[in-house]
Specification:
Number of domains: 2
Strand content: 15-25%
Distance between the termini: 57 Å
Shape: globular
Largest sheet: 5 strands, mixed
Number of strands: 20
Structural class: alpha/beta
Helix content: 25-40%
Strand order of the largest sheet: 4-5-6-10-7
């Protein structure tokens, strides 16, 4: 309110974005390789993210010896309440065996995968696929310029990472010894319920204004890519709903379109199928027992149910189901979950005239289930 008593609209400051552990590890690895090849540490060091952005990172630590070089970057998560904000991400680069290519190792504070169902195989360092691809791409560029083979060992360390990991889901997921090196875009988008839901509503408003009658709510980048390959729709039809499926559907209840499709991974859609409207891990959990009930109802044998009850994640249960058979044949647990998810979405939407369907997208961005029956 100003001196005249008139209420003024004050816009909240934009939330600052940050960088993933994967982006920081990539920048550190690039700088360390430069030093190992006698070119000195790049500081600041620029990298290319999957979306084409080229941020620069300042080094916080560097060390060079005859047979290795290390560089460290402090992770800045922006305004996101990320437990890894302020952590030092260190990459050590050392020569590898001839013909080995780039080999990844977990150093201090970086976890090791011990169970199935994750994008990284058991016994591998918990450095996810996209960060591995980013690191390899930057290193291979340098090797191409320098005319050398890209046979190097890459060890990622995070001092204090084992303590940080206790605040994450890593111990429950069977990732021991530290945190995971994550990120699909390289960018941390600040988590804000109100801001995100507002962006969902704005996206729906724009789509409706452009006459788009079929929109697709996606939980993330992989599901968006899978949906884009599945549907022939303009870019404005895709709504980044994140975990807020309930917020999106409630808005559509008041601002309807002819059809809403929801695209997400198996774990998140299983939460919706079990009645959750917020799919974030802090506010809803995958119910292993419930998923096993779904397996039981599909005709899975006792051995399969026993294996599933011991599973560590929704995706591990999915893998178990894909190997199993019932009396009537192959078990399609993903299709069961897609159908139940669509049923719950209709209950939330409360608009019978709106078509609702769900597609489940795997980590390779492929459609593995469609509630409309195409899979």
């Amino acid at each position: 309110m100003d001196k005249t008593g008139e209420v003024k609209n004050i816009e909240a400051p934009a939330l600052k974005r940050g960088w993933t552990t994967g982006a920081c590890a990539t920048a550190a690895a690039k700088s360390a390789l430069n030093a190992l090849l006698g070119k000195g540490f790049a500081d600041p060091v620029a990298i290319t993210l999957p979306g084409g952005q080229t941020p620069g990172f300042a080094l916080a630590y560097e060390k060079a010896e005859k047979n290795f070089a290390e560089a460290g970057i402090i992770k800045d998560a922006g305004d996101d309440p990320d437990v890894t904000h302020g952590a030092m991400i260190i990459a050590r680069i050392s020569p590898g065996k001839k013909g080995s290519g780039i080999v990844f190792f977990a150093g201090e504070g970086v976890g090791t995968v011990t169970k199935a169902g994750l994008p990284i195989a058991p016994d591998e360092p918990a450095i996810n696929p996209v960060p591995r691809q980013m690191i390899a791409k930057e290193m291979e560029k340098i090797c191409s310029i320098e005319g050398c083979a890209s046979d190097f060992n890459v060890t990622i360390s995070v001092p204090g990472g084992e303590e940080i990991a206790k605040k994450t889901w890593n111990p429950r997921l069977g990732i021991i010894g530290g945190i995971s090196i994550l990120g699909t875009s390289g960018i941390v988008i600040p988590y804000s319920c109100s801001a995100w839901i507002h962006s969902i509503q704005s996206g729906i408003d724009v789509a409706r204004a452009e006459g788009i009658s079929h929109i697709v709510g996606v939980t993330g980048r992989n599901s968006e890519i899978g949906a884009q390959e599945f549907f022939d729709l303009p870019q404005q039809a895709y709504i980044d709903m994140g975990d807020f499926v309930g917020g999106m559907l409630k808005y559509l209840r008041r601002h309807p379109v002819k059809r809403i499709s929801i695209a997400g991974g198996f774990a998140k859609i299983s939460k919706l199928a079990n009645g959750a409207m917020d799919l974030h891990s802090a506010r809803s959990q995958v119910d292993i027992d419930w998923l096993c009930q779904m397996l039981d109802q599909s005709g899975a044998d006792e051995k399969t149910i026993t294996q599933a009850l011991k599973a560590n994640s929704a995706n591990e249960i999915l893998q178990i189901s894909q190997r199993a058979k019932s009396i009537s044949g192959k078990i399609n647990l993903a299709a069961i979950i897609a159908n139940k998810g669509a049923q719950n979405a209709r209950k939330i939407l409360q608009r019978d005239e709106i078509g609702v369907d769900i597609i489940i997208v795997d980590r390779d961005k492929k459609i593995i289930a469609n509630s409309n029956g195409a899979n």
